[in-house]
What we know:
By secondary structure, the protein is mainly α. 75% of the residues lie in helices and 0% in strands. The chain contains eleven helices and no strands.
Amino acid sequence: MIRxxxxxxxxxxxxxxxxxxxxFVVINISPGKPQDMLEFSSKISYEAKxxxxxxxxxxxxxxxxxxxxxxxxxxxxxxxxxxxxKPVIKKILERLPATLLLNFLSLCLIFFGGxxxxxxxxxxxxxxxxxFISFLVFLGYSTPKYWLAIxxxxxxxxxxxxxxxxxxxxxxFDYLPLFSKIIDIVKHLxxxxxxxxxxxxxxxxxxxRGSMIEQFNSEYIKFALSxxxxxxxxxxxxxxxxxxIPVVTIxxxxxxxxxxxxxxxxxxFAYPGMGRLGYEAIMSRxxxxxxxxxxIVAFLTLLGNFLADILYIYVDPRVRYx
Length: 322
């Protein structure tokens, strides 16, 4: 067990270093430079731009800049933002909790929603409820999330006016009582969470349905039912426990999609998270901020997969003895 843990931990570190290097190279060779994105860049002289390049350290070779950045990163020093000279780590920590909350709620919705719909669909195979859920699943596969987000904003935010369409809280949030503050935050989270989890719920539902049908056709399930075991006990205690083992891995693989999608959803809903901050950093060619957000996203993704692997070992004892 300890050997497996150490192997996966070493692989995580090597993968993280590789991702950080590739990200650094891609950012620095992409078109557009920080000095060109300044508001007054067209009015300053060539000599002034060269001073900015030297100030940013952009005149050094690429590998030298990467090793300098990596040495600072080990000390958790991400440098200062090119845009406002604020510490990158401070700007990220201000936005990180909102992104973690959004992704955590989306992951919970994917797990509980996908498992519930998959079990119900399998129990009522080829009946109306199964066909209706299958229709929703295929709709989730085929519908572009950004289009669905805009459609929901128009319907629920503009036409019906029952849900807010931007931000994390209302303008008068500070003047609301405690219970009203909670309701206000929940209403702001409904659309971003539903949209970000929509595709994941569809995928997990389809997988759980197929796996549950396979379990229902197995001999041990038929034997348990023939002995008179309650159907709910057979479904949840016997069949679903075996389906749950690979579901853990699927949830780990869903995390990169959630974190990557947050760049789009947070921008569409003006959600004050790390994804929106990353989009703004990319548009302004803010290299230190882009690198800081990229490594945090990579770390969270790798950490999620690492925890999924470790949890898989505990869920399936057979893995420990291989």
